[in-house]
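#struct-help
A.M.: can someone run this one for me? Single chain, 287 residues.
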Amino acid sequence: MSARVCVVTLVLGRDAYYRSARESIASVLARTPFDLCVVSDRDVAGLADAGDRIIRRNLSAAVRDDCRAAPFLKKFEAIQLALAATPAPVLVLLDADALFVRATCEADVTHALGDAELAMVEQPTVTGSGMTRADFLDHYRNHTLAWFGEDPGVVHDPEAFRFFNSGVVAGRRATFEAIADWASTTIAGRDSLHRVGKHMISDQDYFQYWCHRLRPGRCAALTWDWNHCEHWDDGFPRPDARIAHFSNFCHGPSRVQIRRMRILGQRGRLDGLEGRLLGWISRIGRG
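D.P.: on it. Structure tokens below:
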């Protein structure tokens, strides 16, 4: 393995997650020169021959089935396994329902990072909800800060706060090492269901807390095209997107979603008859 950027993808659970991951992995191989570390709870069958670009690692233990957040929290073990498997100085953590839809090279990633330690896209809203940055800040105060035992009334500048989406996370090796070690230790010390009220505390909350409380000012906001999603962006999929994220808000990938991923991955657009029909079915299903 020699690439200076390694994409890390975690896939586990039902077969549908594996079908989704195969589309995501194919996009990395087709549109980037990056190595790829696939961490899973069983073998990912049906991958294209990629020479030595794909590193495969298995999770060390089963995911507990009584905790909704458990699969998401396994991302930190995936990071640790990837760090042990590749010397790459830069990692891109990519959800298994996200696709590269534009050619991307090392220079694109390092330019996007700049001198920051991490970089993620700000999620500005939830489509149809009217949510704003202030609403996300309230959510962060009342749930993320509460989980970590902090006063929800702690002062935050609403204009400086960003609610980052962890579907795509670019960062430097040393930073991922520190985050994964801290998060894994914290998770192991909390014998609970990772929940505040009805809200799940997931990997995204850990990333938020790291960026806003433990290492403020060291996470850059990527431009929207690095994590383009119909749940917060209009006009999905926009032709100038770099990564299209088919987030399912924890419901699991459907057959429609996986088919849309395949069409977009192979054709670069969803404006044909089948793509439009599947998009309509997807929106009806959400509504």
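A.M.: thanks! Residues 5-253 form a domain with the Spore Coat Polysaccharide Biosynthesis Protein SpsA; Chain A fold (CATH 3.90.550.10).
D.P.: also worth noting: Residues 124 and 130 are 10 Å apart (CA to CA).
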